[in-house]
Please model this.
Amino acid sequence: MKVLVTGGAGYIGSHVVRELFDQGHEVVILDDLSLGNPENIDPRASFIEGSIHDLPRLEEAFTQRVEAVFHFAAFKAAGESMLAPQKYARNNIAGTINLLNTMLAHDVKTMVFSSTAAVYGNPRYLPVDEKHPTEPTNFYGYTKLEIENTLEWYAQLKGLRYAALRYFNAAGYDVQGRISGREYNPANLLPLVMEVAAGERAELQIFGADYPTADGTGVRDYIHVNDLATAHLAALEYLSKNKDNLKINLATGQGYSVLEVVEAARRITGKEILVKIVGRRTGDPAELVATSRIAGELLGWQAQHSDLDTLLTSMWQIYNQQSS
Ligand code: UD1
Model:
Protein backbone atom coordinates (compact mmCIF):
# COMPACT_ATOMS: atom_id res chain seq x y z
CA MET A 1 0.00 0.00 0.00
CA LYS A 2 1.18 3.58 -0.58
CA VAL A 3 1.01 5.59 2.65
CA LEU A 4 1.38 9.34 3.17
CA VAL A 5 3.31 10.06 6.37
CA THR A 6 3.00 13.65 7.57
CA GLY A 7 5.89 14.51 9.86
CA GLY A 8 7.83 11.59 8.40
CA ALA A 9 11.17 13.27 9.18
CA GLY A 10 10.21 13.67 12.84
CA TYR A 11 11.13 11.51 15.78
CA ILE A 12 8.26 9.03 15.72
CA GLY A 13 7.38 9.49 12.04
CA SER A 14 10.88 8.54 10.85
CA HIS A 15 10.74 5.29 12.82
CA VAL A 16 7.32 4.42 11.43
CA VAL A 17 8.56 5.09 7.88
CA ARG A 18 11.25 2.38 8.38
CA GLU A 19 8.62 -0.03 9.64
CA LEU A 20 6.40 0.68 6.61
CA PHE A 21 9.27 -0.15 4.26
CA ASP A 22 10.15 -3.23 6.34
CA GLN A 23 6.63 -4.46 5.78
CA GLY A 24 6.71 -3.82 2.04
CA HIS A 25 4.76 -0.57 1.76
CA GLU A 26 5.55 2.54 -0.27
CA VAL A 27 5.84 5.91 1.44
CA VAL A 28 5.31 9.57 0.59
CA ILE A 29 6.60 11.94 3.29
CA LEU A 30 5.22 15.44 3.78
CA ASP A 31 7.31 17.40 6.28
CA ASP A 32 8.13 21.09 6.53
CA LEU A 33 11.35 20.31 8.46
CA SER A 34 10.44 22.80 11.18
CA LEU A 35 11.04 20.06 13.75
CA GLY A 36 11.84 17.10 11.53
CA ASN A 37 15.47 16.24 10.89
CA PRO A 38 16.47 15.99 7.20
CA GLU A 39 19.02 13.29 8.15
CA ASN A 40 16.13 11.01 9.05
CA ILE A 41 14.32 11.16 5.71
CA ASP A 42 14.33 7.65 4.34
CA PRO A 43 15.89 7.87 0.84
CA ARG A 44 13.41 5.26 -0.42
CA ALA A 45 10.48 7.60 0.27
CA SER A 46 9.13 10.23 -2.05
CA PHE A 47 9.73 13.45 -0.08
CA ILE A 48 7.68 16.62 -0.32
CA GLU A 49 8.93 19.56 1.72
CA GLY A 50 5.88 21.40 2.91
CA SER A 51 3.43 21.75 5.75
CA ILE A 52 -0.15 20.65 6.22
CA HIS A 53 -1.09 24.32 5.71
CA ASP A 54 0.38 24.37 2.26
CA LEU A 55 -2.58 23.28 0.15
CA PRO A 56 -0.65 22.93 -3.14
CA ARG A 57 1.91 20.64 -1.42
CA LEU A 58 -0.90 18.64 0.17
CA GLU A 59 -2.53 18.25 -3.24
CA GLU A 60 0.81 17.15 -4.67
CA ALA A 61 1.02 14.42 -2.02
CA PHE A 62 -2.39 13.06 -2.92
CA THR A 63 -1.74 13.09 -6.66
CA GLN A 64 0.79 10.32 -5.86
CA ARG A 65 -2.20 8.03 -5.26
CA VAL A 66 -1.72 7.36 -1.58
CA GLU A 67 -4.27 5.02 -0.01
CA ALA A 68 -3.86 5.82 3.68
CA VAL A 69 -2.41 8.58 5.86
CA PHE A 70 -0.28 8.31 9.00
CA HIS A 71 -0.49 11.72 10.64
CA PHE A 72 2.38 12.81 12.91
CA ALA A 73 2.89 16.44 11.90
CA ALA A 74 2.13 18.39 15.08
CA PHE A 75 3.63 20.42 17.89
CA LYS A 76 3.88 18.46 21.13
CA ALA A 77 5.41 20.52 23.92
CA ALA A 78 2.76 20.74 26.61
CA GLY A 79 4.34 23.71 28.40
CA GLU A 80 4.73 25.75 25.22
CA SER A 81 1.11 25.04 24.28
CA MET A 82 -0.03 26.92 27.39
CA LEU A 83 2.00 29.98 26.38
CA ALA A 84 1.25 29.91 22.64
CA PRO A 85 -2.16 28.26 22.19
CA GLN A 86 -2.68 30.01 18.85
CA LYS A 87 0.35 28.23 17.42
CA TYR A 88 -1.00 24.87 18.59
CA ALA A 89 -4.54 25.58 17.43
CA ARG A 90 -3.33 26.54 13.98
CA ASN A 91 -0.85 23.78 13.44
CA ASN A 92 -2.49 20.87 15.19
CA ILE A 93 -6.19 21.56 14.73
CA ALA A 94 -6.46 23.71 11.59
CA GLY A 95 -3.64 21.79 9.88
CA THR A 96 -5.34 18.47 10.53
CA ILE A 97 -8.61 19.77 9.13
CA ASN A 98 -6.78 20.78 5.91
CA LEU A 99 -5.32 17.31 5.75
CA LEU A 100 -8.64 15.55 6.37
CA ASN A 101 -10.49 17.67 3.84
CA THR A 102 -7.83 17.03 1.21
CA MET A 103 -7.99 13.30 1.98
CA LEU A 104 -11.74 13.22 1.49
CA ALA A 105 -11.50 15.27 -1.72
CA HIS A 106 -9.24 12.50 -3.05
CA ASP A 107 -11.40 9.74 -1.65
CA VAL A 108 -8.70 8.59 0.78
CA LYS A 109 -10.52 7.36 3.85
CA THR A 110 -7.99 5.80 6.20
CA MET A 111 -6.00 7.66 8.86
CA VAL A 112 -3.78 6.41 11.64
CA PHE A 113 -3.48 9.35 14.01
CA SER A 114 -0.75 10.15 16.50
CA SER A 115 -2.66 10.92 19.70
CA THR A 116 -1.45 11.14 23.27
CA ALA A 117 -1.97 10.27 26.90
CA ALA A 118 -2.41 14.03 27.39
CA VAL A 119 -6.05 13.63 26.26
CA TYR A 120 -6.78 12.08 29.68
CA GLY A 121 -5.39 14.83 31.92
CA ASN A 122 -4.64 14.02 35.55
CA PRO A 123 -5.29 10.33 36.13
CA ARG A 124 -8.35 9.63 38.27
CA TYR A 125 -7.28 6.00 38.58
CA LEU A 126 -4.39 3.78 37.51
CA PRO A 127 -3.63 2.15 35.22
CA VAL A 128 -5.42 4.47 32.80
CA ASP A 129 -7.65 2.62 30.35
CA GLU A 130 -9.58 3.93 27.36
CA LYS A 131 -12.73 4.47 29.46
CA HIS A 132 -10.92 7.01 31.60
CA PRO A 133 -12.51 10.48 31.25
CA THR A 134 -10.79 12.76 28.74
CA GLU A 135 -10.03 15.99 30.64
CA PRO A 136 -6.83 17.48 29.20
CA THR A 137 -4.97 19.81 31.53
CA ASN A 138 -2.88 21.44 28.83
CA PHE A 139 -3.76 22.98 25.47
CA TYR A 140 -1.64 20.45 23.60
CA GLY A 141 -3.78 17.60 24.96
CA TYR A 142 -6.89 19.58 24.07
CA THR A 143 -5.76 19.92 20.43
CA LYS A 144 -5.31 16.14 20.15
CA LEU A 145 -8.69 15.47 21.74
CA GLU A 146 -10.33 17.97 19.40
CA ILE A 147 -8.82 16.11 16.45
CA GLU A 148 -10.04 12.76 17.82
CA ASN A 149 -13.54 14.26 18.06
CA THR A 150 -13.33 15.53 14.48
CA LEU A 151 -12.21 12.08 13.32
CA GLU A 152 -15.26 10.59 15.01
CA TRP A 153 -17.61 13.05 13.28
CA TYR A 154 -15.96 12.54 9.89
CA ALA A 155 -16.29 8.80 10.40
CA GLN A 156 -20.02 9.15 11.03
CA LEU A 157 -20.66 11.67 8.29
CA LYS A 158 -18.16 10.77 5.59
CA GLY A 159 -17.15 7.18 6.22
CA LEU A 160 -13.62 8.03 7.40
CA ARG A 161 -11.77 5.08 8.95
CA TYR A 162 -9.37 5.97 11.72
CA ALA A 163 -7.21 4.69 14.52
CA ALA A 164 -6.26 7.24 17.20
CA LEU A 165 -3.26 5.86 19.05
CA ARG A 166 -2.76 7.40 22.46
CA TYR A 167 0.91 7.10 23.26
CA PHE A 168 2.24 7.37 26.77
CA ASN A 169 5.90 8.40 27.09
CA ALA A 170 7.55 7.74 23.73
CA ALA A 171 11.29 7.10 24.04
CA GLY A 172 14.22 5.13 22.57
CA TYR A 173 15.78 5.09 19.11
CA ASP A 174 15.65 2.43 16.41
CA VAL A 175 17.11 -0.77 17.90
CA GLN A 176 18.75 -1.48 14.53
CA GLY A 177 20.48 1.91 14.68
CA ARG A 178 18.99 3.14 11.41
CA ILE A 179 17.94 6.55 12.71
CA SER A 180 20.88 8.81 13.42
CA GLY A 181 19.36 12.27 13.59
CA ARG A 182 18.51 13.32 17.11
CA GLU A 183 15.36 15.13 18.07
CA TYR A 184 15.90 18.91 18.29
CA ASN A 185 15.69 20.52 21.74
CA PRO A 186 14.09 17.59 23.54
CA ALA A 187 12.26 18.44 26.78
CA ASN A 188 11.62 14.88 27.93
CA LEU A 189 13.35 12.96 30.67
CA LEU A 190 15.19 10.24 28.74
CA PRO A 191 16.87 12.48 26.15
CA LEU A 192 17.85 14.92 28.91
CA VAL A 193 19.43 12.09 30.91
CA MET A 194 21.34 11.11 27.76
CA GLU A 195 22.57 14.68 27.25
CA VAL A 196 23.99 14.67 30.79
CA ALA A 197 25.64 11.26 30.23
CA ALA A 198 27.13 12.54 26.96
CA GLY A 199 28.62 15.55 28.76
CA GLU A 200 26.45 18.03 26.87
CA ARG A 201 24.56 19.15 29.94
CA ALA A 202 26.02 19.54 33.43
CA GLU A 203 23.23 17.93 35.44
CA LEU A 204 19.69 16.65 35.37
CA GLN A 205 17.14 18.58 37.34
CA ILE A 206 14.71 16.23 39.05
CA PHE A 207 11.35 17.92 39.22
CA GLY A 208 10.28 16.93 42.72
CA ALA A 209 11.29 14.08 45.04
CA ASP A 210 8.33 14.42 47.38
CA TYR A 211 5.65 12.70 45.33
CA PRO A 212 3.63 9.85 46.89
CA THR A 213 5.62 7.26 44.89
CA ALA A 214 8.06 4.61 46.16
CA ASP A 215 11.13 6.86 45.91
CA GLY A 216 9.34 10.22 45.77
CA THR A 217 10.04 10.93 42.08
CA GLY A 218 7.56 10.90 39.18
CA VAL A 219 6.63 7.56 37.60
CA ARG A 220 5.89 7.18 33.88
CA ASP A 221 5.11 4.46 31.37
CA TYR A 222 7.84 4.63 28.71
CA ILE A 223 7.18 3.08 25.34
CA HIS A 224 9.82 2.41 22.71
CA VAL A 225 9.36 4.10 19.31
CA ASN A 226 9.91 0.78 17.53
CA ASP A 227 6.95 -0.60 19.49
CA LEU A 228 4.89 2.44 18.53
CA ALA A 229 5.87 1.78 14.91
CA THR A 230 4.66 -1.83 14.89
CA ALA A 231 1.39 -0.71 16.50
CA HIS A 232 0.78 1.73 13.63
CA LEU A 233 1.18 -1.03 11.08
CA ALA A 234 -1.08 -3.33 13.07
CA ALA A 235 -3.69 -0.55 13.27
CA LEU A 236 -3.58 -0.08 9.50
CA GLU A 237 -4.14 -3.77 9.01
CA TYR A 238 -6.97 -3.76 11.54
CA LEU A 239 -8.75 -0.95 9.70
CA SER A 240 -8.48 -2.84 6.43
CA LYS A 241 -10.13 -5.95 7.93
CA ASN A 242 -12.71 -4.54 10.34
CA LYS A 243 -15.47 -1.99 10.29
CA ASP A 244 -14.91 -0.22 13.58
CA ASN A 245 -12.54 2.62 14.37
CA LEU A 246 -10.05 2.68 17.21
CA LYS A 247 -9.08 4.96 20.08
CA ILE A 248 -6.52 3.00 22.00
CA ASN A 249 -3.66 3.33 24.44
CA LEU A 250 -0.11 2.34 23.60
CA ALA A 251 1.79 1.74 26.80
CA THR A 252 3.39 -1.09 28.75
CA GLY A 253 1.61 -0.95 32.11
CA GLN A 254 5.04 -0.79 33.76
CA GLY A 255 6.10 2.48 35.34
CA TYR A 256 9.64 3.68 36.09
CA SER A 257 10.52 6.55 38.41
CA VAL A 258 12.92 9.33 37.51
CA LEU A 259 15.49 7.87 39.92
CA GLU A 260 15.11 4.39 38.45
CA VAL A 261 15.76 5.87 35.00
CA VAL A 262 18.85 7.71 36.25
CA GLU A 263 20.23 4.61 38.02
CA ALA A 264 19.73 2.43 34.94
CA ALA A 265 21.32 5.12 32.74
CA ARG A 266 24.37 5.28 35.03
CA ARG A 267 24.79 1.53 34.72
CA ILE A 268 24.32 1.44 30.95
CA THR A 269 26.43 4.45 30.05
CA GLY A 270 29.07 4.06 32.76
CA LYS A 271 28.76 7.82 33.36
CA GLU A 272 28.16 9.58 36.62
CA ILE A 273 25.04 11.63 35.63
CA LEU A 274 24.80 14.39 38.20
CA VAL A 275 21.32 15.21 39.43
CA LYS A 276 19.83 18.06 41.40
CA ILE A 277 16.46 17.87 43.05
CA VAL A 278 14.42 20.97 42.34
CA GLY A 279 10.76 21.85 42.81
CA ARG A 280 7.89 20.07 41.11
CA ARG A 281 7.01 21.09 37.54
CA THR A 282 3.52 22.56 37.38
CA GLY A 283 0.93 20.17 36.06
CA ASP A 284 2.99 16.97 36.47
CA PRO A 285 1.03 14.05 37.93
CA ALA A 286 2.89 11.80 40.39
CA GLU A 287 2.31 8.66 38.37
CA LEU A 288 1.00 7.87 34.91
CA VAL A 289 0.79 4.29 33.73
CA ALA A 290 -1.70 2.74 31.37
CA THR A 291 -3.10 -0.53 30.19
CA SER A 292 -2.89 -1.50 26.53
CA ARG A 293 -5.14 -4.51 26.90
CA ILE A 294 -7.28 -3.40 23.95
CA ALA A 295 -4.26 -3.00 21.66
CA GLY A 296 -3.26 -6.53 22.69
CA GLU A 297 -6.68 -8.00 22.02
CA LEU A 298 -7.58 -6.17 18.82
CA LEU A 299 -4.20 -5.70 17.20
CA GLY A 300 -2.32 -8.63 18.68
CA TRP A 301 0.24 -6.00 19.68
CA GLN A 302 2.64 -6.17 22.56
CA ALA A 303 5.59 -3.99 23.44
CA GLN A 304 8.85 -5.83 22.68
CA HIS A 305 11.53 -3.20 23.22
CA SER A 306 10.14 -1.06 26.04
CA ASP A 307 12.07 -2.42 29.00
CA LEU A 308 14.26 0.28 30.54
CA ASP A 309 17.55 -1.29 29.44
CA THR A 310 16.56 -1.51 25.78
CA LEU A 311 15.12 2.00 25.84
CA LEU A 312 18.30 3.46 27.26
CA THR A 313 20.77 1.30 25.31
CA SER A 314 19.11 2.24 22.02
CA MET A 315 19.38 5.93 22.94
CA TRP A 316 22.97 5.71 24.17
CA GLN A 317 24.04 4.30 20.76
CA ILE A 318 23.03 7.66 19.28
CA TYR A 319 24.13 10.02 22.07
CA ASN A 320 27.45 8.28 22.69
CA GLN A 321 28.39 8.28 19.01
CA GLN A 322 27.58 11.91 18.54
CA SER A 323 29.28 13.21 21.65
CA SER A 324 32.62 11.50 21.00
C1 UD1 B 1 5.20 13.91 28.26
C2 UD1 B 1 5.01 15.15 27.42
C3 UD1 B 1 3.59 15.57 27.44
C4 UD1 B 1 2.69 14.42 27.06
C5 UD1 B 1 2.96 13.23 27.96
C6 UD1 B 1 2.16 12.02 27.54
C7 UD1 B 1 6.69 16.92 27.22
C8 UD1 B 1 7.55 17.92 27.93
N1 UD1 B 1 5.86 16.22 27.96
O1 UD1 B 1 4.96 14.29 29.59
O2 UD1 B 1 3.40 16.61 26.52
O3 UD1 B 1 1.38 14.83 27.26
O4 UD1 B 1 4.32 12.88 27.89
O5 UD1 B 1 2.38 11.73 26.22
O6 UD1 B 1 6.81 16.75 26.02
N2 UD1 B 1 11.41 15.05 34.62
C9 UD1 B 1 12.43 15.49 35.46
N3 UD1 B 1 13.38 16.32 34.94
C10 UD1 B 1 13.41 16.70 33.63
C11 UD1 B 1 12.38 16.23 32.77
C12 UD1 B 1 11.40 15.41 33.30
O7 UD1 B 1 12.45 15.19 36.65
O8 UD1 B 1 14.31 17.47 33.25
C13 UD1 B 1 10.39 14.14 35.16
C14 UD1 B 1 8.97 14.68 35.05
O9 UD1 B 1 8.63 15.43 36.18
C15 UD1 B 1 8.18 13.36 34.94
C16 UD1 B 1 9.12 12.43 34.17
O10 UD1 B 1 10.42 12.97 34.36
O11 UD1 B 1 7.95 12.81 36.21
C17 UD1 B 1 8.82 12.37 32.68
O12 UD1 B 1 8.79 13.69 32.16
P1 UD1 B 1 8.65 13.99 30.59
O13 UD1 B 1 9.62 13.17 29.85
O14 UD1 B 1 8.71 15.48 30.40
O15 UD1 B 1 7.23 13.43 30.22
P2 UD1 B 1 5.79 13.81 30.82
O16 UD1 B 1 5.87 14.95 31.71
O17 UD1 B 1 5.21 12.55 31.36
Remarks:
- Residues 76-78, 116-118, 140-141, 167-169, 187-189, 192, 204-207, 218, 220, 258, 281, 284, 288 surround uridine-diphosphate-N-acetylglucosamine (CB under 6 Å).
- The chain has two domains: 2-170+223-250, 189-221+253-323.
- The mean pLDDT is 97.
